[in-house]
Amino acid sequence: MANPLPTAVVESPLTGHEENTAQTQSQEAGTAQLAWLAETAQKSEPDQFKYVLLMRFALLNLVGFGLLGVSYMNGLVAMVLVSDQTHLSTTIFVIFFDRTWILCTKSVADES
Description:
Blueprint: H1 17-43, H2 52-73, H3 76-83, H4 88-111
Helix pairs in contact: 2-4
């Protein structure tokens, strides 16, 4: 079966030395951008983003517990607990909640 789309070979308008010059200019522009980024990062205040990680941690956990609350209100959590005869899901929840609490208290204490 023949290819219905026509294919064309496009040659670079730059040849030889001109290609190398264009590539070198592109690399120099990228280096200049990285240098600007490094200089800007050094000028920024170190305490500017002090609580970003803590806020991300809190937001993620609030969303997770919110979804858990919605599932509980819809009866999905009860369905899981009733059908789990080994109590493995309860154990996983307790371990998750315990580790979350430990990390939360540790990160708040570190940021204070």
